[in-house]
């Protein structure tokens, strides 16, 4: 579902050096010109590199007028009908501004905070322009690159009903899930692929995916892909798509790394910016609460015990696990979310948080992007973020689609100066207060209250049905061996052993173990094979965490 906080557009002087396009320059484009020139050097250091780059782009070739309604757009009837069924009636600013151009084949550079409606801004154009075509095995026609598994799943969930209405096949390929099942989805044919760079690179190297038929490419959350070190992989993948084909880049922030992608891969893009910073979101409140190191834990526990959901960010996986255990021991229905969890675990934890079974989600930055929780009204930085971009992305989990929300940061005395600099770069003037865990002011701002003190446990739910092309392989079926390849999930051997307890179960567990480097197949019974499968699956899990 698209979301937005409606803001005015921003622009700046023309600025972009583009790499000359290939021999198919302009193929499939309407009105796109061949590259544009840079009007000067790098932006001056104004104290905010992101701000300088953000003001450095504007549309050179005039774009069509923004659309006020979806009826004004040249969308397939099936797509318009599905929009009505989904209750999407009025385009959000970034959608209305970019869709007339993207539907005509123009490149797009969209800048907006998370929650501004970017997914349908590129998704509707991608779907409409792909409609009526059929992909050959292993050869998708459209590609969406995202930095994280969570964002890939969110994009998939958002586009699936519209793709289904157009009879388009969509495959999601991410690390942490069965590469064999993902290869199978591509082999069956998928017009649209949503992927993280690392896993897509693996599939390309295996020969399970070719990109030479891709004519529409989207980079979503390009700034985080750059921050996570994916630029070499992204560049290599973009070099394999059809030269001169349509490219759309969407990013919450623009900096030097994103500028590199824009200059190299976008040709005379339509530029649109909305919500230039979290500070421009009038429905979002920002609070910096000064606490003592002795009282910080007590304040955090009381905040987490509030009546309602809360997302708490910490710096490390160990700190996240420690706080989650503390909260559970104090009667708070908490769960941990970080990169050390398997993808199925992360998916189930998010589902529990969305339904309210978990009320306090304790997370590292893995949750700062690609997670949409309806009506989440409080985000707490238990550990202050490292830079202003992290702050904006953490805060972007609340105050979405025009809803209200608060971002609270707990700051120790030695962190005050760094926090002041961070807020200045983010162009935010927060409300500040010195608080104690028992203060009424803390309760007023966050809803903090004394926890029950009665320990609770969160039951492990039944595994959710995965999306097509992303589901974990069941039963440890055979796959092409590949060094370093991800397994279905850690513990797939356990699943097989649990079902039968026979020699067959041992082979199932051994299947997981073989991929992870173990040898479960030699087990004479279900117990032995399942044990080896668990061991191998655990080793494979360690390898998998390094993949996107």
From TrEMBL:
CDD domains the UniProt entry points to: DEADc (cd00268), SF2_C_DEAD (cd18787)
Bias kind Gly residues: ranges: 483-536
Nucleotide-binding among keywords: yes
Chain positions covered by the region annotation Disordered: 1-51, 454-548
UniProt keywords, alphabetically: ATP-binding, Helicase, Hydrolase, Nucleotide-binding
Domain Helicase C-terminal: 283-441
Keyword ATP-binding attributed: yes
Motif Q motif, chain ranges: 68-96
GO CC annotations, alphabetized: cytosol
Cited SMART domains: DEXDc, HELICc
Biased composition, class Low complexity, residue ranges: 22-51
Protein name in the entry: Putative ATP-dependent RNA helicase
